[in-house]
Amino acid sequence: MSTHRLSFTLNGTKHELEVAADRLLIEVIRDDCGATGTKLGCAVGVCGACSVLVDGELLSACLLPAVFADGRRITTVEGLAKNDLTPLQDAFIREGGFQCGICTPGQLIAATALLSEQPRPDHEAIRTWMMGNLCRCTGYYGIERAIQKASGVGGQSPPNRL
Amino acid sequence: MTFDYHEPRSLAEALALLDRYGDDAHLMAGGTATVLLMRQGLLRPGHVIGLRAIDDLRGITPTRDGGLRIGATATLRAVERSPEARMYSPALTDAFASVATVRIRNQAMVGGNLAHADPAQDPPPMLAALNATVSIRSSRGERSLPIDELAVDHFTTSLAHDEIITGVVLPPIEPGSRETYLKFLPKTADDYATVSVAATLRFAPDGTIAETRIVLGAVGPTPIRARRVEDALRGQPPSRVRDALELVPDEVDPIDDLRGSAAYKREMARVWTGRALARVTR
Fold this sequence. Notes:
Mean pLDDT of chain A: 94
Order of helices and strands of chain A: EEHEEEHHHH
Structural class of chain A: alpha+beta
Number of strands of chain A: 5
Shape of chain A: globular
Number of domains of chain A: 2
Distance between the termini of chain A: 38 Å
Low-confidence stretches of chain A: none
Number of helices of chain A: 5
Oligomer: heterodimer
Structural class of chain B: alpha+beta
Low-confidence stretches of chain B: none
């Protein structure tokens, strides 16, 4: 098995490490970097729990070879709030955008990517975009309300998308 | 899963690696399919050759004659969002936007999508209806293959072990041509199609159908050209569509699965081909 030297930033902090060719990004950010906010759900790219931003693009960390992260800027749920929660995070709390919380890191990352690309998404755009982030507590109405509430407010972009 | 990962910077370097490792090498573009197949133990290559760092494989560019070239490592989402692709044909970008979710489309790449030869994928039927050719390189030279001849069975292509898909070339669209892509999704919006239909059609000045190409996805081991339907319509007025649709169920070869029985899919292939033809003859 070949190993590869990676250099990337995770939520603004630089990491340099050596990884085996078969490591996936989700394993590296959770196990090597200790950022356990990102969850492993289905492990086949369907459920959205492992959603992360790589150079601002929404991706499944469970499908992404870790070697693809070399030279990239990765943002996980830990990287969203600075001193205060982002308007989106605040809206998730106020609108009941979650129950058990396991899908929430992925929901927040996916919605952050949506608002970064479409600052004022309509009902249909929110549903189309968020369709791939599953919530088994049936919190979809709250999630959509939260995104609507935060839309147009600004301040959603993680630091590396500015 | 144990393998060596290589990330060549040039096509020449990639071809040399392929020649060196032969059957033990597997090419990877975006990795969505390769990672899953390796994790499931269905694919056990000793060497994985990543194509994403090769400049020559990138880009979506109009060709001089009014066609479009899509590089093998363009992501599905790059095609979906490309103004050049949308200008070429909105049906093309619609088909790419139909794949799974934004996350998958941000990672999956066009060359990998074609080489994977999954008969339920959205881009191949649309590319076939648009009469695409696949550009292929090996250390022996280069060739162009009509996209109809790429997939030969479930997850199987006619590519040799030493060949790399470098891109897809779409010919200019003839004036007056109409194109559409429809995907029947009775379950969830991010699912594979139960049946999909890509259709292009052009009328002659006398109002008869001059040319049509109809390609169905997810109802056979490869995308299926409904050639008998096309033949039945060529030179005919659009009022003949209804009769021609009766030929559709015998053109397809679906399997029973969670998305429906084979008999149901045959019937849905007829219904959705009718809807696609209604859109392009309207």
